[in-house]
Known about the structure:
The chain has 314 residues and is an alpha/beta fold. It has a single domain (2-301), classed as TIM Barrel (Alpha-Beta Barrel). The protein is 44% helix and 12% strand. The protein is built from 12 helices and 7 strands. β3, α6 (143-152) and β4 (156-158) form a beta-alpha-beta unit. The chain is globular, with a radius of gyration of 19 Å. The relative contact order is 0.17.
Amino acid sequence: MIKLCEKLCREHSLTHEECVRLVRGHNPETDYFLAQQALKLRQLIFGDTVFYRGLIEISSFCKNDCKYCGLRRSNKLAPRYRLSEEEIFSGVEKAYSLNYGTVVLQGGEDAFFSPEYVERIVKEIKRRHPEIVVTLSLGEHSRDVYKLWREAGAQRYLLRHETANKEHYDFLHPKEMSQENRLRALNDIRELGYMTGCGFLVGAPGESVETIADNLMFLQSFKPDMVGIGPFIPATGTPFENESSGSIKETLFLLSVIRLLLPNVYLPATTALATLSSDGYEQGLRAGANVIMPNCSPERVLGKYTIYDGKNIS
């Protein structure tokens, strides 16, 4: 197994069969080795820099009914809110005052935030602070909508692919959603010149060694600019509310593998890690991550963006 790890460190690539072997056979010894190599590689490329992105959660409404997400439209227990424009701009000012170079506007797929409304918000952010990088994470839209926002000044877009295995994707999502459309959206985003982020849930119900290998192969092929992974955490009011959370150890192992597969990638230590462990951010950074996304949302909505239970709001 160490020889396979050494090959990954040397060549920054794996075959599907090698991914399966690595995911199935990794152990504390290989995890430690991979984390050490991932940290060295991150330091070689980025030094000790940790990139901070100011997260602003603009809406907890969503038209979708994804089985794993606490914001799903049929969840009557989810607290719902929308930020006003001034609340969004206040979050931007907070991020700016803390010297965060990027703001991330994240929300459910909420029709209230029409393409034109988001366009106006992006333009105003760029008018006030031209140097701030605007990242959007607002779900699936048409190519024309992504083009509109790109031309308004948005530079990055985050859209988790969730899982690269079609059967697993169908298991996690309602019938009206399709993996084909998710991949279409990701390709549109990239072709329009956004820095593009994707990612997947670790330990989601229905996950197998093969689906994890599928995810790693997808990342190796797609070569995103950013990859967001985090352990699955169940949400009250969803079909998966009684399922077990994903493993921190498995998530850290996969962070290291992704760093070694994609040396230049921006790789967050996610809020989900910090939710399951008080030192989750630090563990993620030691495994090869180099991004943290502090929450800059208004105090009145902190804790209400309940994509899963017990979310860390720092």
